[in-house]
Amino acid sequence: MPSRLTVAREPSDIFKVIGHPDRVRLIEELRVADKDVNTLAVHTHLPPTRVSQHLALLRSHRLVDEKREGRHHVYRLTQPEIAQWIVEAIRFIEQRGPASLSAEAEEARMLWS
């Protein structure tokens, strides 16, 4: 029984970390290519300070890592499969959400696939 509890705790912790819309958007941006904070801020329309804070949390949970390129810190997903989880979640959301969400879900799926 303790091993099942341990295994159940890991995905729960990951879901908590990615459980913010901004972090989902950052993961989807990093799915395509490695990016620095300023590029992520432009693509997500978020302030760079907020992007940095979210990246710090994602990094502390080993979902992203960073490398230095000159004065820039470039971030990448440590396991790009997490972006696929999010795309798969769209199907789940469509099935349980209102019909009006369908067009938005399809647009997100096209952008993120």
Key descriptive features of the protein:
alpha+beta, 6 helices, 68% helix, 12% strand
Strands, helices and their partners?
Elements: H1 2-17, H2 21-32, E1 35-36, H3 37-44, H4 48-60, E2 64-69, E3 72-77, H5 81-96, H6 101-112
Antiparallel strand pairs: 1-3, 2-3
Helix pairs in contact: 3-4, 5-6
Description:
It is a single chain. This protein has a three-stranded antiparallel sheet. The longest helix has 16 residues. Strand 2 and strand 3 form a beta hairpin. The protein has a single domain, classed as Winged helix-like DNA-binding domain superfamily/Winged helix DNA-binding domain (Arc Repressor Mutant, subunit A). 68% of the residues lie in helices and 12% in strands. The chain contains six helices and three strands; from the N terminus they run ααβααββαα. It is α+β, with helices and mostly antiparallel strands. The N and C termini lie far apart (37 Å). The mean pLDDT is 89.
Q: What separation lies between the terminal Cα atoms?
A: 37 Å
Rg result:
15 Å
The percent of residues in helical segments reads: 55-70%
State the low-pLDDT regions, or none: none
Under CATH, the topology can be stated as Arc Repressor Mutant, subunit A
Judging by the overall fold, what is the CATH architecture? Orthogonal Bundle
In CATH, what is the class? Mainly Alpha
Counting structural domains, the number is 1
- Widest β-sheet, arrangement of strands: 1-3-2
- Rounded mean pLDDT is 89
**Tally of helical runs:** 6
- Percentage of residues in DSSP E strands: 5-15%
Order of helices and strands: HHEHHEEHH
CATH superfamily: Winged helix-like DNA-binding domain superfamily/Winged helix DNA-binding domain
Shape estimate: globular
